[in-house]
Each structure stands twice: as structure tokens, then as C-alpha cells.
Design goal:
This protein is mainly alpha-helical and 497 residues long. Among the domains are: 133-210, Serine Threonine Protein Phosphatase 5, Tetratricopeptide repeat, CATH 1.25.40; 238-496, 3-Layer(aba) Sandwich (Rossmann fold), CATH 3.40.50.300. 58% of the residues lie in helices and 5% in strands. The protein has helices at residues 5-16, 20-33, 38-50, 54-67, 72-84, 88-101, 106-118, 122-130, 142-154, 158-167, 177-193, 197-209, 216-232, 235-240, 262-270, 283-295, 310-325, 345-351, 364-372, 387-407, 417-422, 424-435, 481-487, 489-496, and strands at residues 251-255, 275-277, 333-336, 356-361, 412-416. The radius of gyration is 23 Å and the shape is globular. The model is unreliable at 453-462 (pLDDT under 50).
Length: 497
Amino acid sequence: MAAKPDLTRLTTTMYRDGDAPGAQRLAEELLRSHPRSLEARAILGQALAAQLKHDEARTQLLKALKQAPKNPQVLCLLGELAMNTGSYRDAIGYFEKAGKHQPDLVPAIAGKAETYLRMGKPEQARRVLERQRIEPRDPRHVPLCKPLITALLRLGEADAAAALAEDMMPLDPSLPLEHRRAILFARGKALLDANRIDDAFEAFREANDTVAGRWAAQRDDQSALQQRLIDTLDRTALDSMPRADLDASNVVLIVGLPRCGSTLTEQVIDAHPSAHGVGESPAMPALVQSMQDRFGLSAPWPNCHEALSADQLTDLGRRYLDAVTDGVGPDRIVVDKQLGNFMNLGLAQSMLPGVRVIHCLRHPMDLGLSTWTNKFPPDQCIWSDSLEDIADAWHRYVALMRHWETNCSLPLLTVRYEDLVQDLEGHARTILDFCGLTWDDRCLRFWESKRTVLTLSQDQVRQPIYTTASGRHEAWGAHLAPLRNALGDAVSDYERA
């Protein structure tokens, strides 16, 4: 796909700066004047996918494929989208078609290997990659090195993975930002698995430093929003709001911060034959964002809480239920683990009467370490780039959850990760009872489920319960002093609770 000046600018915006919304706007602008531009439509599809607008991205990429059915780049983009949405067979098909048209196409080879990794087949991923003559210092081979490092780690070959990662250093500064981040995080994991904690810490610090300062631009707005929720929605305000005319007692919201054990909790419930996990549904955050325009309100949520009518709340509730129950059989418990819904519990109380909430908690030091050592998609969990920012996010999140616990009347169950892994059956019984489900032994064998998991925890939930993630922070010693100091009393408060 030949690049034009505007498209070069688009590519720079998306890959160098990580500004997917900016890339989307520029692509749409170009398509208005050049509606047949295959390049602009392909980049628009990428930009939408980067913002998790999967259906819109698929529409644009299928339009591009219709224009050029044999274009290997478009086929690869569709393969990547299919992989990231759990359609692994489709992903393999797209990557193989791309490879037929261009056998040495690196994105097709890397995509196929990454898909096998997502499927829990590291040996097949390694076979795909080892057919290539990978040169670690060749920038063109970076997309191949990252899945090979991961495959080696999954196969227990940490020293080989670390050696490959070290052979790639220093990285070519011209590499796209997300490629650099991916390799640096993979390097950190390899060094950690090779028991080189000091080196791993420096690798993770370098990975996070590539995007350092992102949270500073959003911290004040986010802090102000959370404070408005606390100041505006006290018990009197929440109790005076009308209720939607519907029954949402079959819906369970799982909330918390990333890496809190929510995927394990969801998998335990989803293993029950009368339950269905929908993953991280974007439905509620989208409804909150669109509420003001949808109803012509004078202010956004939560300032508009007094203006909302029962009919409007019913409309919101029905739209949400339609989104999360689509394709789910009748009489099943639906579990939505959109963790960010901890911001929306005040609204959920009125728009989803009967909804239940499971609050997943984890030791703040372990949670902080886990978020800091994992690469999240662009624009997600950006406070995890800094140990101090992680502590800031923890403090504000805990303050808001305490506010909801005091002022909301929602049924709420707190599940601590450390307790769950120590006594799976005991806490699983409590969780199922809270959800209105009878006991089923299959919930103790959640890893046998063939269900696709799209979060960073996908590997953990394919194996029986383990306790090694509890207290993991202790091995890092003084390296984590910035996190511990910034958390302050939160550590002792959690340990005493």
C-alpha cells in the first residue's frame, strides 16, 4: 500500500505517538476527499481497533478487503483483529491467506505465531517462528522476536528467552512505539523468569519510561470526576433517584482494578452451566458517555442525576441488558467484568434494579507490581507506567469504593484474591450463593473450560489454582520502595483487614 504524505502523518500519529483517536480523525478526513483510498481505510480500521471499537474496525477492514481481496496487509489487519477478539480460527485463516500472497510477510508470520500462543499452543508457535532465519538486531524481525520470547517462556526455557531479548538490545529508535514497548516488557519477563530480578527491574523501568508522563495529562480530570461522584451522589441523592422499570437481578458486575483476580472470579462463575461471562463489556461506560446527548441534558453524569426520569433510566437499562445478554440463553446469570464500572455503581443502582456487584481486591503491593510489569493496550491503565502513579490510582479507587459501600444499597460482595486462592471451594461457594446459583463441582475445574479469555490473565486461567502470585512483591525488596512509600498506610490497612 503506497504511502501518501497525509498517510505518513497518520502512521506517525498512530505508531510513534500512540494517538489512535488522532489517527482516526485524519483517516476519516482523508476518506472524505479520497473515498477509494485503501491506505486511509486500512489505517482507519487500525485506529478503531486500537480504541477497542472492534465492530467499526471490522466494517472498515472488510470494506478495504472488498476493494483488494488479495492484499496481504489488509488480510493481516483482519487477522490481528480476529485474534484480539478471540476468533482464533478466523485469525489463522487470514494470516495463512496473507502468507500465500506474500510468503515472507513478517506480520503474517508473527500474527500466526501470536495466535497459537493465545490458543495455549506455544510449541506450534515456536515451530512457525523457527522456520524463519530470525536476526535479533534486524528491525524487520522485531515482530517475530516478541512471540518467540513468549513461546520460549511458556516452554520453560527462560535462559534462552532472556538471551534472545538481550541480543536485541539496544533497540532501533525508529521502531514503532508499541513494538518497542512489547519487546521491552517481554525482556523484563524473560529476565524475571531467569531469576535476574535486578536486571528485570531495569528492563521494566525502561519499558514504562517509553511512555512516562501519560497519566499526568489525565490525572487532574480523573481525580475531579471521582470527587464529583463522591460529592454529588450521597445516600440522599442516590435514594431520591427514580428506578428503571426492569429487572436486572440476573446481572452481576465484577469491579476493581486490573490484576485484582477478577478473571479468576469470573471463570469460577462462568464454569457454572447456568452462568455466562461476557468479559469486559464496553456497554455501561458507553452509555454514561452518551447520556447527555441522548437525552438532551444540560450537564453530563453525575451532575444530571436530578434530571433523569424513570423512562430515561429504563431506556439506559434496556440498552445495557440488550448489549450484555445478546446471544445468551434465558434464565442465565450474566457476568460483566468491566472493572472500570466501579466508577458507575451509583448509576447502576438506578438503571439496573436488582443488579449485584462483586468487588475484587488484591494486596496493593502485588497489584501494583503486576500492573507495572505488564504491557496494557494503548490508552488503557496508563497510570501503571509509574509506581507512584499506581499508588495514586489505588488511593482514589479505594476512596470511591468506600463511598459506594456507605451510600449505595446495591448487594455487594468483596472477594480478596489471597483468600480465594487459599480456599477456592469455600469462597467459590460464597460467590455462587451471592449470584443466586446452586453449587456445581465444575466451578472448581474452571481451567477445563474451552472459553476464550481476552485479558492478560488468559494463561493463568488455563491451569489449576496456584498461590505463588500472593506476596510476589516481597522478592523485589527495595526496588518497590517508591510504591510502598506512596501507598503509605494502605498496605497495613489491607493486611489488617
